[in-house]
Amino acid sequence: MVENKQTVIVTGSSRGIGKAIAYAFAQEGHNIVLNGRKPISEEQVQELSQFDGEVMTCIGDISDPDFAQQLIKDTKKQFGSIDVLVNNAGITRDNLLLRMSEEEFDQTLDINLKGTFYTTKAASRYMLKQKSGSIINLASVVGQIGNAGQANYAASKAGIIGFTKSVARELAPRGITVNAIAPGFVESDMTDVLNDKVKETIMTQIPLSRLGQPEEVAEAAVFLSKQKYITGQVLNIDGGMVMNG
Question: CA 20 to 30 Å from 242, out of 15, 51, 58, 60?
Answer without folding.
Answer: 15
